[in-house]
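To the wet lab folks,

You asked to see what we're planning to order before we commit. Fair enough. Below is the target structure as tokens, and below that is the sequence we designed to fit it. If anything looks off to you, flag it before the synthesis order goes out.
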């Protein structure tokens, strides 16, 4: 276990032992684990590899795939789809993210070049085109406004190629009310890789946490040579450093190339979580740090579900409306199954 921490000013610095490869049992960090068996019907077939976001509200579990949104009740019974594929009013051509206004029972869907608002009965309330140069990395509905993190189209100045990462605030009419630049990053390549861990705007009740992931090239050599290792609190339009992860040599090898690529970082009241890739070992890692005990756990293959005795290790994801809750899914195939069932969803409440 990687133990200990250091303080730089008021900033918590957490060491990550990249040479460690263990697994952390969920029973060590979970207070409660809820199981939802998702009903399989002709309309509710789920491809786990295409899941973009899972939302949990008082009445429903909502799952967004790349090309559909499905609503289940809390027992897993299929209720209805939301919207449909197409290019007409209220239709989408593909889904990149989803956010919920639970108080007013509305869903906000980012579908490539537009944002669509539905009620939970599936009725389209309004839709708005987005800038064609936007790549929306994440979205969340917090404190009565829609927050979106956008990576803007490639630009160039005297220093070279760069991308802007910007946060926008939108009102109920899907109009921009405010914005601020998160970062401006220069790089040489334009063919950047994508990843599936884009949980950047998270609500910690009452704290809003923001981590803007790195520009990452999926083949060789880093796009950026600076490791973006800091998690921030969002206070109005100010980013206040909350903590940082400390990697060996700040993730830079002897040739000056970055070999650590952070994709996701967030915290609950007690734990700090991260997902990163280590190019030296050609693998993805999950990291969990317990602020109460000062212990860190670096995991190559994910967490061990010793509660449900799932043989395969699992990869957890935060509920974007509450960082005290995470979720994951697993497909349980039985010997007599003639077709693959829908995955089972698990929601875990973290210890405090």
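Sequence we intend to order:
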């Amino acid at each position: 276990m990687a133990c200990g921490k250091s303080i730089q000013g008021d900033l918590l610095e957490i060491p990550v032992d990249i040479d460690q490869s263990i697994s952390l049992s969920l029973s060590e960090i979970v207070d409660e684990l809820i199981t939802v068996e998702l009903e399989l019907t002709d309309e509710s077939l789920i491809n786990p590899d295409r899941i973009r976001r899972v939302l949990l509200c008082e009445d429903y579990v909502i799952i967004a795939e790349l090309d559909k949104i499905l609503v289940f009740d809390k027992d897993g019974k299929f209720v209805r789809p939301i919207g449909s594929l197409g290019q007409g009013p209220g239709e989408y051509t593909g889904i990149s993210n989803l956010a919920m206004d639970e108080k007013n029972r509305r869903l906000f869907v980012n579908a490539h070049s537009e944002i669509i608002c539905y009620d939970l009965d599936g009725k389209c309330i309004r839709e708005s085109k987005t800038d064609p140069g936007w790549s929306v990395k994440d979205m969340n509905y917090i404190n009565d406004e829609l927050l979106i993190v956008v990576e803007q189209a490639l630009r160039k100045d005297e220093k070279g190629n760069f991308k802007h990462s910007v946060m926008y605030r939108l009102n109920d009419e899907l109009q921009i009310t405010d914005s601020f630049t998160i970062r401006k990053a220069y790089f040489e390549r334009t063919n950047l890789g994508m990843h599936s861990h884009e949980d950047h705007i998270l609500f910690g009740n009452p704290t809003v946490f923001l981590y803007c992931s790195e520009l990452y090239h999926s083949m060789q050599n880093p796009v950026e040579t600076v490791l973006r290792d800091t998690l921030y609190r969002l206070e109005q339009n100010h980013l206040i450093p909350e903590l940082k992860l400390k990697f060996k040599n700040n993730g830079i090898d002897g040739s000056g190339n970055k070999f650590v690529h952070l994709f996701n970082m967030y915290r609950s009241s007690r734990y700090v979580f991260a997902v990163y890739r280590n190019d030296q070992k050609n693998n993805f890692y999950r990291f969990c740090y317990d602020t109460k005990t000062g212990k860190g756990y670096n995991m190559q293959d994910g967490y061990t579900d010793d509660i449900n005795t799932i043989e395969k290790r699992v990869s957890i994801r935060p509920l974007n409306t509450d960082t005290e809750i995470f979720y994951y899914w697993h497909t349980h195939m039985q010997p007599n199954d003639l077709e693959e069932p829908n995955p089972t969803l698990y929601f875990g409440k973290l210890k405090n």
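Structural context that might help your review: The chain has a mean pLDDT of 88. The longest strand covers residues 176-187.

Thanks,
Computational group
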